[in-house]
Amino acid sequence: MKTYRVGLLIDGTDQPGWIHDMAEWLARSQDFDLSALLVMEKDAAGLSPRFGAKALFGTLSRLESRLLPARQRQMLACRDLRDGLPASTTVLTLPAGPRDSGRDDGVAALGLDLVIMLGALPPPRSRMAGWARHGIWRLSYSDIAVSTSRYAGFWEVYQREDHTTVKLWRVGASADEDALLDQRSFNTEVFWLKNQTRAFSLGNFMVYDALLALARARPGAAPPGMQIMSGQRRDDPAEWDSAAYIARQAWLMTDLIVRRVMRRNVRWRIGMFPSTRQQAVVSEAMVLQPPKGRFFADPFVYMRGDHPYIFFEDYDFHSRKGTISVATYENGAFQLLGTALNLPYHLSFPYIFEYEGTTYMVPETCGNRSIELWKCTEFPLKWELDLTLMTDVSAVDTIIFKRGEYWWLLTNIDRTDGQNHCDELFAFFADSPRSSHWTPHACNPIVRNPMRARNAGIVVSPGGEVIRCAQYQGFCHYGKGVSLNRIEELSPSTYVETDGEIHYASFLKKRHASMHHWHHQGGHTVFDFAYME
């Protein structure tokens, strides 16, 4: 029997696909019952977009919808939410009345445990008092002044912000008493509607995670140190904002087209220096340059005797696929040794570690929807598949290390639309790195912030101190910087990380300077960097 009775508060029965996704999740859940649809009648005197703004944004929406993949178009396409609902779901229409009206809507009689407000203009707080045992939850986007989803994701694209933030609130008796339950961000997309669908998708996952925490009696399970990323409250955009947005997008597209015509691209290469100091990059780095038509990235240094071996992604622009190559450094120069791993799918991020005298590699095998463990049979170029750690998962940049009594696997899993792995970091633990069963961390995702979620390497000291390197992405700027973050506490139920300074590739003094990987072992540090050329 399901434990919690949930109602969805909406502003009409015709709703977009992302709200259908929420209803379907509740219908499938073992713990939650979609007991009611609370449909607010639209108030003709209420807040509505001005005619000019509505017309311009309608045109803009039609234009940008053509750029969306099919799945994201479905998220915005409206259809009747009552179709396919469980027969037990009550549909209750709530009349639109004066905003200070206090009336009995009949909601309290439904015995709901929770009401989730999705995309609707909120009714007066006095009307919602007593509706549900655990109160009212609502999602907010872009810190706009009106709590609807109409312009979600617009301002961040318009203002070229690196990240877009979504918040989950418990509604209080007044605005000052609203409680922030969760806040997460993602890297801002180039187009408004793509950014909007990402916001809706992430918002749904925030609700799912919060509901699961409620069902497991773990309301405090969110990882500590949630960074509050609040901006000023912003008004709904007006007609001229739409026109200015189109002008800005036209300028951006022109720049991209010019770069393509002139064959200008960002090409990655690898640097190495004998220090962990960021300041040593400029004066001491040796550079491993890729040949024409390829780039080198995601380097890991592995010491064998006194010699550093660098394993890295070797990407071919023609085949559009990466392999894992190996180089060494001796007598003041790099020497390419050959290809260590070449598979039918893309490979990158060749994380190397030792276990019981054997050398293992966990390359990124997202193209195969797996996390694979490879064993070295003849160092450094011969490897064989040892076992598959996880299947049917869209995961990248996996690291495995021993801390305390467990082996830990940290990886970036994309739960949204299959196109971004930078927003959330997940942890799993097992008794052995060769385990085929990894237990999820109680607080997953343990990092929920694109400023620091995606792995960019790791530094493990001889004393067991773990520095997790993380990528920082910018607007239209993949690999804007790297941070070095110390893991202070890691157990099956806790995760504490001290945020390190973000290091940017300003030392390059070039346009679109980028850096997105960092690794240190045996007195050698490797990193990658890129710039427009």
Overview of this structure, please?
There is one protein chain. The chain is α+β, with helices and mostly antiparallel strands. The chain has helices spanning 17-28, 51-65, 70-76, 125-128, 154-158, 192-215, 239-261, 280-284; strands spanning 4-10, 14-16, 32-40, 78-80, 90-94, 114-117, 136-141, 163-170, 179-187, 266-273, 286-288, 294-304, 307-316, 321-330, 333-341, 348-355, 358-365, 370-378, 382-391, 395-403, 406-413, 426-430, 439-440, 455-460, 466-474, 477-491, 494-498, 502-504, 514-521, 524-532. Mean pLDDT is 87; it is low at 219-228.
Unreliable sequence segments: 219-228
Q: What is the helical fraction, as a range of percent?
A: 10-25%
Let me know the largest β-sheet.
7 strands, mixed
What would the average pLDDT be, to the nearest integer?
87
Strand content: 35-45%
Per DSSP, the total helix count is 8
Termini separation (Å)?
Answer: 62 Å
User: Radius of gyration from the CA trace?
Assistant: 25 Å
Inertia-based shape? globular
Structural class call reads alpha+beta
User: Within the largest sheet, what's the order of strands?
Assistant: 5-3-1-6-7-8-9
- Tally of DSSP β-strands: 30
